[in-house]
Amino acid sequence: MSKVVFQKTKALTDKEFSFCAGCAHGIIHRLVAETIEELGLLDQAIGISPVGCAVTNYNNFNCDMVQAAHGRAPAVATGIKRVLPDRIVFSYQGDGDLASIGTAEIVHAAHRGENITVIFINNAIYGMTGGQMAPTTLVGQKTSTSPFGRTVEHSGMPIRMSELLATIPGSAYIERVSVHNPLHVRKAKQAVKKAFQMQMEKRGFALIEFVSTCPVNWGMTPKDALKWAEDKMLSYYPLGVFKDITKEAQE
């Protein structure tokens, strides 16, 4: 009799992912879904879908899902959590959704200390709409709207959302992770689990930022995109915990 060593989590539906080859959204979806199942939250979780490449993730997550307007997921999550405080509410957002049009929503949700969990995907580009420059695009990085590379003089420095949100008194747990290799995939799952546990313990606002890839709009193979993320993105977006009130309390 064969032994089962891996199987699809019950927190994902049988709907095939619509992401491009090499896109890390699929990996991140699985980590979030596995965490929801392992923590016994299938009947409690409510997810907020973004606008962007993951706009249809309500087809993939096997829990209650709500579609929010572009950038408004933290506001929608706030309303749901306040009406249903015993439910576990999470938003799933890209850099255009969270760090551009939704900057006000995410900052004020953190300032209010909303007891929600945010999954933030940073691939340094607008993936769904044609590869335009994002607030997170690196200096010198070429996009469809910065064909000669982003410059500080024209666009300023790329925004570091984890560092920004960690300075806000209302935030409880902020960590940046990556999925560029198996070791970091495992570490990322630990971070996601802790972010959900923070909400379960009513500790406040938690956000996990994923350094991710967009091979198609970066003009790279999936393998080269993973290497580029490791070599280029991590030097500007260092991995690690930027705030953890549980450790601060122990100190």
Care to count the β-strands? 7
The helical percent reads: 25-40%
Beta-strand content bin: 15-25%
> What is the CATH homologous superfamily assignment?
Thiamin diphosphate (ThDP)-binding fold, Pyr/PP domains
Q: Name the average pLDDT.
A: 95
Number of helices: 10
Element-level helix/strand string: HEEHEHHEHHEHEHHEH
Strand order of the largest sheet: 2-1-3-4-6-5-7
Give unreliable regions as ranges: none
CATH class identity = Alpha Beta
Radius of gyration: 17 Å
CATH fold category name: Rossmann fold
Largest sheet: 7 strands, mixed
Overall 3D geometry?
A: globular
Q: What is the CA–CA distance across the termini?
A: 51 Å
Which structural class do the helices and strands define?
alpha/beta
Q: What is the count of structural domains?
A: 1
* CATH architecture descriptor name: 3-Layer(aba) Sandwich
Brief rundown of the structure:
The protein has 251 residues and is an alpha/beta fold. It has helices at 25-38, 73-83, 95-101, 103-111, 152-155, 161-166, 182-200, 215-218, 222-236, 245-250; strands spanning 45-49, 64-67, 88-94, 117-122, 171-178, 205-211, 240-244.
Describe the secondary-structure layout:
Layout: H1 25-38, E1 45-49, E2 64-67, H2 73-83, E3 88-94, H3 95-101, H4 103-111, E4 117-122, H5 152-155, H6 161-166, E5 171-178, H7 182-200, E6 205-211, H8 215-218, H9 222-236, E7 240-244, H10 245-250
Parallel strand pairs: 1-2, 1-3, 3-4, 4-6, 5-6
Antiparallel strand pairs: 5-7
Helix pairs in contact: 1-7, 3-4
